[in-house]
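note to self — DONT lose this again. spent like an hour looking for the file last time. sequence + predicted structure for the chain T wanted, 445 res
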Amino acid sequence: MKRIRSDISPPQFILIVFMILIFVGGGLLALPISASSGQSVGILDAFFTAVSAVCVNGLVVLDTGSTFSTFGQVVIMILIQIGGLGFMTFGVMVAILLGQRIGLRQRLILQQTTQSTSTQGMVKLSLHMALIAFVFEAIATAILTLRWQADLGLGQAIYYALFHSISAFNNAGFALWEDSLSQYVGDPIVNLTIITLFIIGGLGYIVVVDVIRKRSWRKLSLHSKVVLLASAILSIAGFLVIFLLESWNPATFSTLSLGEQSASAFFQSVTPRSAGFNTLDISQMLTASQFFIIILMFIGAASGGTGGGIKVNTFVVLILATLNTFRGGGQIHAFERKIAQDTVMRALAVVISSIACVLIVALLLTVTENLLEEHFLDILFEATSAFSTTGLSMGLTNELSPIGKIIVMITMFVGRLGPLTLAFALSQKKRASRIGYPEDHLLIG
């Protein structure tokens, strides 16, 4: 791997490379060859699509299947894979094939991109990440090819299966059908395959590797235990809430059997965790269900995974800290392990900055899109979806003004990198204060 300038920090390097990927991808998608009509889709829409693909978001202003040619769709697929798996992982693979040494600085960048706690084993983790991604995507491609062969023909079935497998594993949410996967609302093969892909991708490579290596709940790391348990609880709770709410909604469940209702409710309970696919029309769901999905989108997937949001482990840390405060303070712990105070403060910073980002974006979209007051939930939904890189929409994306598109593009970019990573990238080197102030108390609550 080429030597990285020492005056560029790992977060800054990640920021620069992401921007390069977006500009290259946007330039390619703006070419006439990328459009099915043979005419350019336009610079703004091309770059919106590139940002959404690199940031594995899934929000689209143009229908991917009908607007883009095979060349354009392949560009999108490559951007999704690089954006989700990580450009440094591909760099490690190339460097190893070329026989080059992976230095400390490259390991620091790998640590930043994978959100690991240590630089040890970064090269091996990167290879495991690539292997896990390619194996699961290959298996899913084979399964979906067999399912879609009768409907699409062998050649198109392989292509559609590969595209949706890459999109699902990387939690991108791009689909080649205009209604996403709504036509397969009751199809067990498609549902289980897609759900498995984006759940594993959302758990994070560190968790998957930990489970494969140790194969015992007691031996798993604290991070893995928290992510697995919290993800299971959120999935079950999400299923129950959406199933019970939508059971009263004739616009979504009236034409579905009980089995299809259960499948769609479970799908819609896990897809807000940053997957972006949908088997129900989100705009037709009850307001309560839509607001609940906003909450799930904001929480998102796990740290180190392909999903976005504040992350389930961040959410769990704040819940534990809150409960601990209610009990009178003391150590914050989980699974017989103490959680460092620095971790709690970092979690708090992530949540506060994320809330601020979503609210600011919602405020800006309220001004630029000039919608009626009763459509504010659409705007809040869009802002949260863009920030959490989920890609779900209630229909506002296709109606965004040029300024609105730019705002959403910036939001997707910030959401993918993370507010703290972006802040570290743009900030000066940390300086320790030489002044020590006396401690005092401030009233809270």
